[in-house]
Amino acid sequence: MTAYSDLAAHFDRAAALANGIGILQWDSDTMMPKGAASTRAESLALLRVLHHNMATDPRIGDWIAASESEDLGPWERANVREITRSFTVDTAVPADLVEASSRASSRCEMAWRKARADADFPALLPYLEEVLRLQREIGRVKGEKLGLSPYDALLNGYEPGGRSARIDALFDDLAQFLPGFTEEVLEIQARRPATPPLEGPFAVEAQRALGLEMMKVVGFDFERGRLDVSTHPFCGGADNDVRITTRYDESDFSRALMGVLHETGHALYEQGRPQDYIHQPVGQARSMSIHESQSLLMEMQACRSREFLTFAAPRMRAAFNGSGPAWEADALWRLYTEVERGFIRVDADEVTYPAHVILRYRLEKALIGGEMKLADLPGAWADGMKSLLGVTPPDDRLGCLQDIHWPGGGWGYFPTYTLGAMTAAQLFDAACRADPGILPGIAKGDFAPLLAWLRVNVHGQASLLETDELLTRATGRPLDASVFKAHLRRRYGGEMEHSAAA
């Protein structure tokens, strides 16, 4: 046995424990009876402490040091790099703080479900204050170890190497671009003939069947995953057991379908990670911005394209026994690319979605930094929505209570959504330039060319490369917001209008 083989064997065992936690968490969010919440919270808290203890085992430092003199290949060297990165951070956080944070998040998640249904932020406030207090402490101790601010230390957990200074510049630029562009798009839409409405109701079972059919079309492996229902759609589960969820509305099937395709993009990434390293840190997803790029590439870039909707239109009609002009491909394309100022992030269109993320990013950064009191969140949220999107939520259910991230302890996560949108545009652009058969394939329901490119350039790379290096190798340049803006202009702006007229 070498030091590296000892290291790899240790992380194989840690992955087995993490996989168990993943399935228990999925069950908590989908099928667990309410009466089991406290018992489940205790179980998850203990398992997370055990996992933390494995991740901070003192022997890891010795194995890392000894492996430096061993003859390792590029994947093994990258694995040591990733283990060193996580070990440095994990050893900064005491086990009792990990346990307290897990318990607080479990309690807060359950309180959030009721508070969200009741639009009752004050009922959630004491639970969320405890989560925030513990997240600040985690950010502080990690930041001291890494030489970062508490917020950047939390961000680093989702986006290794990510820094708020760079995000500030990117998001400030988008915040200047989006309001005026949104107004331009709304004016263009107002000049078009009204999109004929789709007449419901749309039975949940029919929606589920259509979602399953489209998951198969884009390449989801049902031998290693499944589809379920949850309050908040997500992708979770375990290695080779990828669980995705959606939520249904019988008056509108489009939201659930695109939600399924979004989460399927995440799942394809998980299912495409290299099997030889799937239980090792180097075999994990590179970062959350790359993960979000895969969901947004599938949903926004590919499945809201004219090509895909030309393919999908007859299948949608068949699923719901539809007839008439509302079910034609062009009408469905206009439906799926309709821009509207709204309150809910997960239902937002491609143009307004970044504004929802920018708002959350600015608020969570201020809350972690102590620049804003949590009790002031509803008012600050309403002000931000008015400034960025021109709408004011009528209640907190449609405002600051809509997302599970903060109650669940996911602070520093939100900016990765819009970083992911920019990355998705850049990757899809590069893929289509590299293989001109991708869009014609999508028009026939053949996603194999696109999936093959992603397997080579993203999924199969896992964490072998740093984020910027991965993107540069795949697209020829680091993250460039101009590609995302150009995509929006082509699909929604004046360029789209001139193209349609021609």
Automatic annotation (TrEMBL):
Broad specificity carboxypetidase that releases amino acids sequentially from the C-terminus, including neutral, aromatic, polar and basic residues. It holds the Pfam family Peptidase_M32. It comes from Xanthobacter flavus. Its cofactor is Zn(2+). It is an enzyme of class 3 (hydrolase). It catalyses: Release of a C-terminal amino acid with broad specificity, except for -Pro. Keywords: Carboxypeptidase, Hydrolase, Metal-binding, Metalloprotease, Protease, Zinc. InterPro entries: Peptidase_M32_Taq (IPR001333). One of its GO terms (molecular function) is metallocarboxypeptidase activity. SUPFAM superfamilies: Metalloproteases ('zincins'), catalytic domain. This is Metal-dependent carboxypeptidase. It comes from the Bacteria. The active site is at E263 (proton donor/acceptor). GO terms for biological process: proteolysis. Belongs to the peptidase M32 family. Its EC number is 3.4.17.19. Binds 1 zinc ion per subunit. Zn(2+) binds at H262, H266, E292.
